[in-house]
Specification:
Length: 219
Amino acid sequence: MTLPIGTTAPDFEAETTEGKIKFHDWIGNSWALLFSHPKDFTPVCTTELGALAKLKPEFDKRGVKLIGLSVDPIDRHAKWAEDIKETQGAAPNYPLIGDTDFNVSKLYEMLPASTSGDPLTRTPADNQTVRNVFIIGPDKKIKLVLVYPMTTGRNFQEILRVIDSLQLTAKHRVATPADWTQGEDVIIAGSVSNDEAKTIYPQGWKEPKPYIRIVPQPK
């Protein structure tokens, strides 16, 4: 089991490639994306770290801080960054946690509480459950959890799409339909009565069924 949506993201102190952090303080009033990797110098993760480095301006625009995690130590992260830059065209431009005591992996229920020992003796398969994406809001609540197998690289365009939806629906009382992207029509949330909806949307809405009320995306 992984942490459920809506719970407070566990706080922690950790060493990263950009110095020691206290997680909640580091998030501040921003959103955060915490994504984890089973081992340094693994092929799929190498492509992911490079892809995310190139996309960082898109996350910056949305006020989302990026932070990675691997159970390997910080000095290996630095050497791995050289490979990432060489093969992917961009090195990580965000901190990477060195979770050598498995503390964060355990807190976020990616590894069993009984996990111990030298992280360098563990194989990627030993850590294959450390392949999560957590999106955390400024209120420090977990908004989304994605869990990927080692053989499937993450789709960061989908993660950006989800962040757009999360930020929109946090601000407005709407929901986003399947395959929604920025600028498309949205659905009035079920918690909004028709009387309230008439005040919020005086121009009305499309209603193919009484429970599906479609309006343009709010500004």
